[in-house]
Amino acid sequence: MKLKSEKLTIVQKGEVVYFTFPHFDKYNFVKHGFTSKKGGVSDGIYESLNLNFSVGDEHHNVIENYKIIAKALNINFENLVLSNQIHESEIKCVNKSDRGKGITQSRDYEGVDGLITNEPEVALVTLYADCVPLFFLDPVKRVVGLAHAGWKGTVKEIGRKMVDRLVNQYGSNKEDILVGIGPSIGDCCYEVGEEVAQQFKRIKASGNNVFKKGNLKYMLDLWSINKDILIRSGIKENNIVVTDICTNCNKDYLFSHRGHHGKRGGMAAIIQLEVE
Length: 276
Hints:
Elements: E1 9-13, E2 16-20, H1 22-25, E3 30-35, H2 59-73, E4 80-82, E5 91-93, E6 114-117, E7 123-128, E8 132-138, E9 143-149, H3 151-155, H4 158-170, E10 178-181, E11 191-193, H5 194-201, E12 210-214, E13 217-220, H6 222-232, E14 240-242, E15 267-273
Parallel strand pairs: 4-7, 5-6, 10-14
Antiparallel strand pairs: 1-2, 2-3, 3-15, 6-9, 7-15, 8-9, 8-10, 11-13, 12-13
């Protein structure tokens, strides 16, 4: 395997490859992973573990891919509940009654870029192909969450909003919350224009993470910006693990919207609490 990481654990089960966070792995009551392209049944531009229903792949292939990754993570396929992402910052609390929504049954919600639950055997799922996956775990109150942070969600500080929900809805102590910032496009590859760069310059967390390239182009470091947002929200820096895997740099293993010029499948962040 050529893909390497000093921050994440790379797991291979048969042909399936996915990533986990070491500071989450030490808790046996949570299962989680961020998928790669590897190990599914889709072909063509979706080869092979495409988990996005809305990019043109055959529906039955995507269903089979979910069954494959659920088995690899030792999660019941029927426990999965899928977000409905629109690059905003809405977060939905879900429970056992939501299992299957977006996968085996229709959703009764729209515009949800973050999912959160304190119920076991509810497997949260959010989708990616360059945007930043944020994994949340409160091991004391036993709450998990996922947030899809593209540039728009990052500007709207979806990470901070998730922290607020953990505190206000579940009574979490900010010092207990663990966060994983998963594989996405890095500052090595994420070029944006003046309009996007100006939006980041207006938020305090951007710091020195917007780099001018010339010709009104900038390189954007979404990893550091999200980390800064989380730290300003009260999360301890030592409780945050930031990926070192860029989707665009690793197109053989990961779907990248930019790297594949929009002709691609999608990866998923998945997390589930276990029964105590």
